[in-house]
Write a structure and sequence with these properties.
0% helix; two-stranded antiparallel ribbon; mainly beta; 56 strands
């Protein structure tokens, strides 16, 4: 509109009319190039070009796309760019096909399951050996994923589960990507919802522009609208002309001699306002998650040892590889096949981790354990990272909870912004909101030169220094942000990376001092996990001792002797063997005897001499 400037796809602001001065005219101030363009002064002439990632020609520069219909049918409009919507959308072993800008997930032939979480081979039902039960038309279910099957006589009756749309076998969530929702809503946890609650800071207003929450400070307030806006302090006009006072820059921008740039890790037009890289998961690619206003890989430190991690629609999914089993959020161990035993459809369990298996008519029936959500074999905790919770909650002990209780100090108020608890003192109070707020004492106005740092305009956890007649604010050591929004590095674990924990308001390694002697420590989702070193056993949280070698029993196959009378036992290679004594015959295991004891034991032409049959003639 006339009299307004800015990015029409984000926000327009009133154009300030500069005071006419006898100075050199800058042809680029104000810019004649229009929105989304760059103006360069070339020998007193304005040269216009489109800003990076914008197309067209000034003054009609525009993004590559605004809605899906401006992209090919196999692409979707994401952050004003035509991109493939498939990466990170479908589950493990599922295939993705883009139809009319929307990603369609399905399990491949021979696989079944939830294509948005995980597909697995169709289990082979064992042939029952007992009397044939009546055929259940719902086992296996013909209704497809996200559906419910009811047996009506001998026929199956299919319907979509609550909160799912379509008709079986094509039931699907209400949304998968933002473009499935109206422009004033975003896709959050597969539901079209207002993205504003929990997105903006104190004293900030929120409106939704093309699925994205746009935060601005309310009238009479300034600061970072994504954390906290503070009342504008009316200062006396500066004596010397300062091009940065008042600042021509928008929120979260830095002014340097009249030139505006976005703060570190903030993006956008610095003259109208910079915003963080993300405030919710839908601002990131589907294989990334929004953590501390940055798009990151949520996998590191999330899964247990030996487990694999896949990011599906912003959520890290942990699974045990083939040939292993266990809780993938703790540890996966190699499967040891037991000895052959009667067939038990629940041993080993086909249901996956965090599930229960019950035998019903010779068939294993799977269900998730209490406190876990989803459907086997993809049962998982309610949350693993805070990005899986509403913006007004954080993931604490695998549950979505309010992070405020116990976080702020006495007489302080707490507001959850983008999963993080923001503490502040109420109007008329001052102090450290993380410890205690107290009423501002009324002090008499002394007849002394005004100290711009008394009271401090810098906010809590900040240092104020006098520079000339103006205050210069900076955050105290070990605090982050920019005044008046200085805050500790962390107040709860989810504000740290998965390999660190929040200790004394600092992100630190929780391992030192956590485990006992002869134990090793690894951090899984902010929690130290202790395990005994190889060759040791015991309680890894107190101490591990070397595994005592079991003395090998010495084999004595000849004690007691297994041999009969007149036989001797000889040991060789751990085994015993019986042989008759010299000049004895017979079975050494039953008993050996001399060749003869009476003449009748010998042939008629021999005589028994010294227990041997001999010729009696020699010497006769």
């Amino acid at each position: 509109m006339p009299g307004y400037v800015g990015n029409p796809f984000v926000s327009c602001t009133v154009q300030e009319v500069p005071v006419t001065q006898a100075t050199v005219v800058d042809p680029c101030n104000p810019s004649p190039c229009g929105p989304n363009s760059v103006c360069r002064n070339n020998n007193g002439q304005a040269v216009c070009s489109c800003a990076p990632e914008y197309q067209g020609a000034p003054p009609n520069c525009r993004p590559e796309c605004v809605v899906n219909n401006e992209c090919p049918t196999n692409r979707a409009c994401y952050k004003f760019k035509c991109t493939d919507p498939c990466p990170g959308t479908c589950g493990v072993d599922a295939q993705c096909q883009v139809i009319n800008h929307n990603p369609i997930c399905s399990c491949r032939a021979g696989l079944t399951g939830d294509p948005f979480i995980r597909c697995f081979p169709v289990p082979v039902q064992p042939t029952p050996t007992t009397q044939q039960e009546p055929l259940d038309p719902c086992n296996p279910s013909p209704c497809g994923p996200f559906s419910e099957c009811r047996a009506t006589g001998t026929q199956p009756s299919c319907s979509c589960l609550p909160n799912y749309t379509g008709s079986p076998p094509n039931c699907r969530p209400e949304c998968v990507v933002n473009t499935d929702c109206p422009f004033t809503q975003a896709c959050i946890s597969e539901k079209c919802r207002d993205p504003c609650p929990g997105s903006c800071g104190l004293n900030a207003d929120c409106r939704v522009q093309n699925h994205i929450p746009i935060c601005t400070c309310a009238a009479g307030f300034s600061g970072d609208p994504f954390s906290q806006c503070s009342p504008i302090v009316v200062e006396d006009p500066p004596q010397a002309k300062d091009p940065c006072n008042p600042s021509p820059c928008g929120a979260n921008a830095i002014c340097d001699n009249g030139a505006c740039t976005c703060q570190t890790n903030y993006f956008g037009d610095p003259y109208t306002g910079c915003r963080p890289e993300c405030t919710m998961n839908s601002d990131c690619p589907r294989n990334r998650a929004c953590s501390n206003q940055r798009c990151i890989d949520p996998c590191p430190g999330t899964c247990g040892s030996g487990a694999t991690c896949d990011v599906i629609n912003h959520i890290p999914t942990c699974t045990c590889p083939s040939g292993t089993s266990g809780d993938p959020f703790v540890a996966c161990k190699e499967v040891r096949l037991p000895a052959a035993a009667p067939v038990d459809p629940c041993s080993p369990s086909p249901c996956g981790p965090n599930s229960l298996c019950r035998v019903n008519n010779g068939v294993g029936v799977c269900s998730c354990q209490s406190g876990f959500v989803g459907s086997p074999p993809s049962c998982r905790p309610e949350c693993v990272v805070s990005a899986e919770c509403p913006l007004t909650q954080a993931c604490l002990n695998s549950k979505c909870r309010d992070p405020c209780p116990g976080t702020c100090g006495q007489n302080a108020r707490c507001q959850v912004v983008n999963h993080n608890p923001i503490c502040s003192c109420a109007a008329g109070n001052t102090g450290d909101p993380f410890r205690q707020c107290f009423p501002i004492p009324a002090t008499p106005v002394p007849n002394v030169p005004t100290n711009p740092c008394q009271p401090s305009p810098c906010g809590p956890n900040a240092d104020c220094q006098v520079r000339g007649d103006s205050p210069a604010c900076s955050c105290l050591p070990n605090y982050i942000g920019s005044p008046p929004n200085c805050r500790p590095e962390c107040t709860i674990n989810p504000e740290c990376s998965s390999q660190l924990a929040c200790i004394n308001q600092r992100c630190a390694d929780p391992c030192p001092g956590s485990c006992g002697y002869n134990a090793q420590c690894s951090v899984v989702n902010h929690t130290p996990v202790c395990s005994c070193n190889a060759g040791h056993t015991g309680d890894p949280f107190t101490g591990c001792t070397p595994v005592q070698a079991i003395p090998q029993e010495v084999s004595t196959p000849c004690t007691p002797s297994p041999c009969g009378a007149n036989a001797v036992c000889r040991e060789q290679n751990g085994a015993g063997a019986c042989t008759c004594l010299p000049d004895n015959i017979g079975n050494p295991y039953e008993g050996c005897r001399p060749e003869c004891t009476l003449n009748t034991d010998c042939p008629s032409n021999r005589a028994c001499i010294r227990n041997k049959c001999q010729d009696p003639c020699p010497g006769t």
